[in-house]
Inverse folding.
């Protein structure tokens, strides 16, 4: 039988591994190991209390979470690779048939890779250790919770926290409080910007109002000046109108006197002319009637001599009376 065999020694307390910390395989001689185990067993048993055991369990959980996170990153890397290779519409079928993942689970794993694995690859390419150091302190649950922190702020946020001392519930609370604080900050900034905008609009409105007041004042002064000029012009016009009215009255009196005399002359002439025209008309009518009467009497002589004599005598008597009238 060989004198040595594989044993496990705790890398933190240098004792044989009893579940206190992460195990580390080492090789001991059987006798040496048994001797050391016999010397320290009583001490270890006497020091193991519920808080110590709880610390060991939490340490194992954290280490397990790191292993799960590393696996999740690699799975997410490969899922992303497969998704780019598959035809459109085949992604969901492939997940269910090949790896028994829902699309929601696959999307979460690819987000883990994009948030941590891709950044770690980039850090290695440029020769920095920031992302690697970040991943060293995170387990899967913590990495998933920290997706709620924007990528640009995530590294600084992690650096400010004692990640290993926080449970998933505590970290969730911190992230939620941070998100709420960011929302409140953004709201304050939004309200500030809105207030500044409203202030600028108010200032602009006041400036426009001041310009309008200045313009109205200038226009008012101009109207006052014009009104004064109009008042002066009105007085001048009224004075000129009075002078013209007096001149008009004078001219009217002169013209009326001359017009009355001329009008009388024209009226008398018109009366005389009308009377002459009337007399001429009557004469022409009388002459025409006498001629018609003479012609009728002459024609009556051949047909009715007795009637001719009677009418001839009456016409002679009428002409005799007319000749005796004073004209």
């Amino acid at each position: 039988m060989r004198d040595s065999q594989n044993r496990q020694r705790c890398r933190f307390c240098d004792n044989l591994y009893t579940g206190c910390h992460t195990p580390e395989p080492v090789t001991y001689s059987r006798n040496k190991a048994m001797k050391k185990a016999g010397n320290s067993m009583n001490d270890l048993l006497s020091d193991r209390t519920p808080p110590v055991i709880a610390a060991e369990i939490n340490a194992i959980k954290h280490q397990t979470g790191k292993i799960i996170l590393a696996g999740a990153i690699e799975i997410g890397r490969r899922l992303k690779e497969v998704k780019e290779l598959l035809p459109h519409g085949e992604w969901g079928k492939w997940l269910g048939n090949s790896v028994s993942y829902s699309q929601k689970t696959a999307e979460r794993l690819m987000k883990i890779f994009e948030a941590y694995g891709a950044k770690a690859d980039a850090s290695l390419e440029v020769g920095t250790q920031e992302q690697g150091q970040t991943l060293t302190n995170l387990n899967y649950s913590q990495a998933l919770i920290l997706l709620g922190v924007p990528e640009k702020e995530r590294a600084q946020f992690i650096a400010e926290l004692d990640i290993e001392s926080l449970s998933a519930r505590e970290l969730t609370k911190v992230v939620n409080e941070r998100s709420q604080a960011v929302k409140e900050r953004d709201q304050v900034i939004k309200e500030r910007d809105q207030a500044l905008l409203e202030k600028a609009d108010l200032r602009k409105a006041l400036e426009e109002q001041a310009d309008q007041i200045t313009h109205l004042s200038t226009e008012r002064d101009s109207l006052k000046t014009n009104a004064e000029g109009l008042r002066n012009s009105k007085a001048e016009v009224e004075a000129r109108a009075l002078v013209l009215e007096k001149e008009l009255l004078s001219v009217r009196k002169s013209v009326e006197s001359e017009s009355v005399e001329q009008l009388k002359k024209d009226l008398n002439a018109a009366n005389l002319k009308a009377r002459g025209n009337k007399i001429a008309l009557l004469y022409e009518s009388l002459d025409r009637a006498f001629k018609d009467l003479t012609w009728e009497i002459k024609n009556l002589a051949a047909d009715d001599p007795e009637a001719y004599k009677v009418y001839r005598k009456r016409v002679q008597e009428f002409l005799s009376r007319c000749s005796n009238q004073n004209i």
